[in-house]
Every structure is written in C-alpha cells, then in structure tokens.
Amino acid sequence: MQKLVEEYASPNIGIALGLQGELMVLEGLSKLEFVVKGRDSRSFEGLTWTESQHDLDFIVMRDGVGYGVEVKNTLGYMDHEELKTKLEMCKFLGLRPLFVVRMFPRSWIHEVNQSGGFVLVLKWQLYPWTHRSLAVRVRTELGLPVDCPRSLADGTMQRFGNWHVKTVI
After folding, report:
1. What is the Cα–Cα distance from 158 to 168, expressed in whole angstroms?
2. Is the overall model pTM greater than 0.85, yes or no?
3. How crowded is the C-beta side of 165, counted as CA atoms within 13 Å?
4. What was the pLDDT predicted at 154?
5. CA–CA separation, 120 vs 115, rounded Å?
6. Are strands 65-72 and 56-62 parallel, antiparallel or unpaired?
C-alpha cells in the first residue's frame, strides 16, 4: 500500500493530473461555446492583478460575461487563502468566479456563490487515460474517488451551462 501511495503522490503524477483536469474542463467549456480569453492569466480587459503572483487557470467568455476559471483536480481541498485570493482577483478583473473541483466544503461553495460565482463539483479525481492502470489500483486498493474518463460527461458541464443561462440571460 505504501508503494502505491508513493506512486500516486509523485510530483509527476500531480502535474499530469492538473493538466488532465484543465484539459477536460477546457473541452467541456468549448462544447458549451465559451471562448477562451486567457490561460494562466492575471490580466483582463486592461486590468492586471498585482497584489500577488497568483493567476487564473482560464478566463472564458460567453454572452458578454467573463469568468475566471480555477480547476483543482486534487483529492484534498485547495488552500482557503488561495480561494479568497482568487475571489478577490475575479472581483478586481470584473470576472465571475468558476471553480471546478473534486470537492469543496459547503461554506466555501456559499462563499463563491456570494461572490456571484459557481462551483462545479466533480466528486472524482480525473486521471489521464494513459494512467488508467494506476487509477484502477488507487480506486480499488485504496478506495479513493478516482476515475479516468476520456472526457467529462455532457451533463457535468451542462450544470454550469444551465446556471450561466439562468443567471445571465
């Protein structure tokens, strides 16, 4: 078991998981006709966030509304201070926050909602298809919520799409 934990906790696996989550979310947003305006960005429409070195994974737009997107494809929660910073960034840049995460505490979801944003909870940590055997071992031997779909289910991203239409149009 220790060997398996060391394998899935390796920095290279962490980088692969981060990229996988971002690519899957980016694909899902494009299916909903959101346009990418920035990646790893801290600037939008002439404004630049200078209070810290943080950036947003993506900035996307649809129907004249911009979103600051943060993807966290991790088993644990992101740091709460980072969450607060990302919310401040979005407010400063005139963006609505969108967090796509494996899981979030309810109080944090409320915090994002109060900032005019949305939290899309995936429930699963998403492994690249090429790491399927590792994902199966982590899920079966450790009982952790991991999976390796080729893309997000249409209904998953549609939860955000429906919210966007309901609150914007």
Report:
1. 15
2. yes
3. 7
4. 87
5. 15
6. antiparallel
